Amino acid sequence: MKFNKLIPELSVCNFENSIKFYTEILGFIIEYQREESKFAMLSFQGSQMMIEETNNHWNTGKLERPFGRGINFQIEVDKIQPIIERLKKNDYPLFVEPKEKWYRQDNQMIGNKEFLIQDPDGYLLRFAEDLGIKSL
Q1: Of 4, 12, 77, 119, which has the fewest CB atoms closer than 10 Å, so is most exposed?
Q2: Secondary structure of the chain: what % helix, strand, coil (to 5)?
């Protein structure tokens, strides 16, 4: 397995709930895990993240829900619709409904079809499907 150069590690309150959410609902794959540490390395279409049940090892302050305030994790995917369907099937709410967004980069616009959800601990996940590039 090749590791990305940046891999976020999320502290979670309940490892079992989080692993179920990421694997059974979203479709992430467990690359490896350490059950004794309640830790897992996950991947999804080239994105990688780690989750570990809170253990005060990495805390810089008091953890309060929603976790990760001030950050969202953009996860580029082939298609957002299959993920949305799995979320709806599991009655999991969307934080922001799917919409087309265009972001300026120098003299061009980069397009995404995207939606946002919060994981069980409140981390904000933004799934984005590439719509291509337009010139300004």
Answers
A1: 4
A2: 15, 45, 40
In angstroms, what CA-CA distances link 89 with 17, 28, 83, 135?
17, 17, 10, 38
pLDDT range class, residue 119, cuts 50, 70, 90 = very high
3-state secondary structure of 15: helix
Using a cut of 0.90, tell me whether the model's pTM lies above it: yes
31-44 average pLDDT score: 97
In contact, 41 and 48? CB cutoff 8 Å: yes
User: 9-54+72-135 has which CATH code?
Assistant: 3.10.180.10
Return the domain boundaries, the chain: 9-54+72-135
DSSP 113-131: EEEEEE-TT--EEEEEEEE
